[in-house]
Amino acid sequence: MNKNSAEQRNLGLNTTCTHVGEIADEQFKGAVSPLYMSSSYAYEDVDVKRYPRYFNTPNQEALSIKLAALEKAEAALVFGSGMAAIATSMMCLLQAGDHVVFQQSLYGGTYHFANSQLRRYGMDFNFTTGTSLSEFKAAVKPNTKVIYLETPSNPLLAITPLKEIAEWAKAEDYITVIDNTFASPVNQNPIELGIDLVIHSATKYLGGHSDLCAGAVMSSEELIKQVWEAGICYGGSLSDYTVWMLERSIKTLGIRVERQNSNAMAMAEWLAQQPEVKQVYYPGLTTHPGHELAISQMSGFGGMMSFDLQDHLSAETVLEATQIIKASMSLAGVESTALLPSKTSHSLMDKEDRLKQGISDQLIRFSVGIEEPEDLQRDWKQAFAKAQ
Ligand SMILES: *Cc1c(COP(=O)(O)O)cnc(C)c1O
């Protein structure tokens, strides 16, 4: 099932992005993978019963090979959304009576999934108070089965020590799961650090153009087989047309994210010097508390950051005034976007709790695109001026 050969795991990043898993066009010798939209395949003389919900159409299988190679995993599955990937993985790993430790500061949809779904099925969970190993240790119970991580975190870009937590979890027989969406496989490969299962919202960096919704799970062949068993029941596979679009998008993943990394570094350094900005949260800055840890486990600091405006500036006015940077819910596209966590992802949170976590009304989350940094700087500058 969607095997990834050692040879393919050894190719460089951009070669992997461009070529691994491509389907040869035997008939017309076209340069790109043909798209097979069939939902029905002959049942005679074939080993595999192919069907879109079985995650095994030619295009689904081919993309899985590329995704597995990107995360240095044995196998992968493509889902219809990030949440389909998360929900299916969790329902496969857990049963009634099991307990999950979730890292504090979780993607909102995952938080909602835990609260609205896990409890209904007799599964228990709690949240850590922070991202250190001791805070994870403090949260486990005798029935803990899964440790669920997200690093860098949303929206303050806290860094979780992956290797330390993976070693401890392995010794205690917990399964470690990470949502690696913010880092993308270009900047962080958790499986190499000992994490068991990696999940992506492919709607974000993997897609990268804010025009498709998809998800992915990467892991060992053994765990992927289990996720597949659940997956064919829950039916969260991805349509072949979007699979093909995602394959096309990933060809430029490496160069997109490398540019987003360098743009984000330039923007973080620039923002930190602006009098209108109180504080910048970006793991690439030496002032960030997770900077050294980020260096040890990431190959790039990513395209996501947050910053606090000075108290006299209205963050809402600033976001209304930007011209290039779009005020938008999503992230990770080639276009820069920004939002207010206090009004979006964390709006349902008790205000006191939110402030305690450092998420003020002045906090702007900034997803840096591939534009020229000078243009983005000019855009923020004129927006700051309008909010004075
Ligand atoms: C967007 C997102 C998700 C959910 O992905 P969908 O594709 O919207 O279902 C999960 N985790 C993170 C970190 C995200 O940003």
Key features of this structure:
carbon-sulfur lyase activity, Cystathionine beta-lyase, globular, 2 domains, Aspartate Aminotransferase, domain 2, binds pyridoxal-5'-phosphate, alpha/beta, five-stranded mixed beta sheet, Aspartate Aminotransferase, domain 1, 12 strands
Concise synopsis of the structure shown:
The chain contains 15 helices and twelve strands.
Describe this structure in words.
It comes from Aureicoccus marinus. The modification N6-(pyridoxal phosphate)lysine is found at residue 204. By secondary structure, the protein is an alpha/beta fold. The chain is 38% helix and 14% strand. It folds into 2 domains: 6-250, Type I PLP-dependent aspartate aminotransferase-like (Major domain) (Aspartate Aminotransferase, domain 2), CATH 3.40.640; 254-386, Aspartate Aminotransferase, domain 1 (Alpha-Beta Complex), CATH 3.90.1150.10. It has helices at residues 6-9, 13-19, 58-70, 82-93, 108-118, 133-137, 162-172, 184-187, 221-234, 240-250, 253-272, 291-297, 315-321, 351-356, 373-386, and strands at residues 75-79, 99-102, 124-127, 144-150, 175-179, 197-201, 215-219, 277-281, 304-309, 326-327, 337-339, 363-367. The strands form 2 sheets. It has a 7-stranded mixed β-sheet with strand order 1-7-6-5-4-2-3, sandwiched between helices. It has a 5-stranded mixed β-sheet with strand order 8-9-12-11-10, with helices on one face. Strand 2, helix 5 and strand 3 (124-127) form a beta-alpha-beta unit. It is globular and about 70 Å long. It starts with 5 loop residues before the first helix and ends with a helix. Pyridoxal-5'-phosphate binds next to helix 4.
